[in-house]
Structure formats: C-alpha cells, structure tokens
Design a protein that fits this description.
This protein has 249 residues and is α/β, with parallel strands linked by helices. 43% of the residues lie in helices and 13% in strands. The protein has a 5-stranded mixed β-sheet. Helix 2 (63-76) packs across helix 6 and helix 9 (207-220) crosses helix 10 (230-237). It starts with 8 loop residues before the first helix and ends in a 12-residue tail after the last helix. Mean pLDDT is 88; it is low at 221-248.
Length: 249
C-alpha cells in the first residue's frame, strides 16, 4: 500500500490561538550505537506556505533526498530544534526516559528561539506521550500513530532529526573507524556487529542493549527452546522490542 502524502489537515483541527503547531518525531530508537534524536518542527498555520515538495517520513526517503529536503524544510518552518540523549543516558535511565530528556531539550531550544511552547499544541508520532511526562510545565501533546506519514509538521521533524543524527554518526565514524557508521549510522548491520566482536565497544554503544542481545541469544540457543516464546523472553530479560537490524526509528 502506498503511504499517504502528509498534509496539515490534522494540525488545522487542533486548537491553537497562536496558529502555531509543533510536529515532533524521534530517530535512532533502534540503533546499537549513537544518541537518540528528537526533532521538532514548528509550522504557522495562518500562513498559507506551500509544503516542501516530496516531504515524507524520513524512513521513506533516500539519504540523498533527505539532504535535499532539509534546508527546504528549515525555511518552511517557523522554527526547529533537535534534542539528543546519549548512549550513557539510555543505559542509565532507559529508552523512554531518554526520549523524554531529548524531547525536553528540543522544547527548551524552541523556547529560547521565542516559541511560546506552553501555548502551542504538539503533534507527537506514536501512541505514548514521552514528552508530557518529561517537562515540568504544561504542554499540550496530541499523540497520533503514523503521524510521520500523515502530518506534514511531523514529517518535517522526522527529516530534520534524521539528517542531524546521520551527520553526527558520520562524524563519529572518523573518530571510531571500523564500525561502518557512515553506512549503518549505528544500527545493527552485519558489518557493525562483526566490528563489535572484533574491536569491542566504544563510549557510543548502548551497553545494556548489547548485553540484552547476548542474553537473548543464549536463551534462544537452549535445547528445546520454543521460538514461539521469543517475544516473552525478550520482555523478561529486557531486550529492546524494536528492530536493531534495519534502520528504523
């Protein structure tokens, strides 16, 4: 099925006295190395500015196309920000808490840019409000499954955060060569996994995730293990229930 073209129809249904809406999306959720990135893209609904041509969820675009869309999306938005949470924060506090930290940092950056964040509705991709639970002040969050595919503001946030994180991982590839981060961006490709076995880990690797994968592999290898219980075992040992093989957000 062909994904829908993002639009501002959902955003226009929200109550926003200022006419602004913040689209929010995260990337790096399923990676073995590197930070989480939460992007925010502020759109002014009172201005009939044409949406960037070809704007889509970043996962549906090639790397080259995302690079082309990034500056266009920046000009289209009123303001934008990217918040990051490190691998150490993911290990220490867990994935969802780290998402909240990154989102809080992005929201604070928007506030410094003059966006009245307490008065502007946020459209957050997914069905879990990790942002509202992380900020100490009032913020209106509307969660929406597949918002990155249907809401233009969220698609914009998706592209901006994906490009920013990818560039960061390419830079880190020069500091920690051998893991192929310029190609896999820290996700669990065969090349990346082989390099971990050969070279060990770095301060950018999510050690709790790697340990969970090792434990999960040892459980699966037990004689008589029933593959049908794989997900339950993953939950028991704390393995991430997201793909660490494909580049998924």
């Amino acid at each position: 099925m062909t994904p829908p073209t993002p639009s501002l129809r959902f955003e226009r249904k929200l109550e926003s006295p200022s006419g602004l809406v913040i689209g929010c999306d995260e990337v790096g959720r399923g990676a073995l190395a590197g930070p989480l990135a939460v992007g925010m893209c502020v759109v002014d609904l009172t201005k009939r500015r044409r949406m960037p041509e070809g704007l889509r969820d970043s996962k549906l675009l090639s790397e080259a196309r995302r690079e082309q869309l990034e500056p266009v999306t920046m000009r289209w938005s009123v303001a934008h920000a990217i918040g990051f949470a490190s691998a150490q924060e993911i290990d220490r506090f867990g994935l969802m808490a780290a998402l909240g930290m990154a989102a809080h940092r992005a929201l604070d950056e928007l506030r410094m840019l003059g966006v009245p964040v307490e008065e502007v509705p946020v459209v957050l991709d997914g069905n879990y409000d990790y942002l509202g639970r992380a900020v100490p002040h009032r913020v209106t969050v509307h969660t929406k499954i597949k918002a990155d595919q249907t809401c233009a503001s969220v698609a914009g946030a998706s592209v901006l955060s994906k490009v920013a994180r990818d560039r960061m991982m390419i830079e880190h590839d020069g500091v920690h060569p051998g893991y192929g981060w310029s190609r896999n961006k820290g996700y669990g490709s065969e090349e990346h996994r082989e390099a971990i076995t050969r070279l060990g880990t770095t301060d950018l690797h999510r050690l709790t995730w790697l340990r969970a994968e090792e434990e999960r592999a040892s459980v699966v290898a037990l004689p008589g293990f029933d593959d049908g219980g794989e997900q339950d075992d993953a939950m028991r040992i704390g393995a991430p229930l997201v793909s660490a093989v494909l580049d998924v957000d």
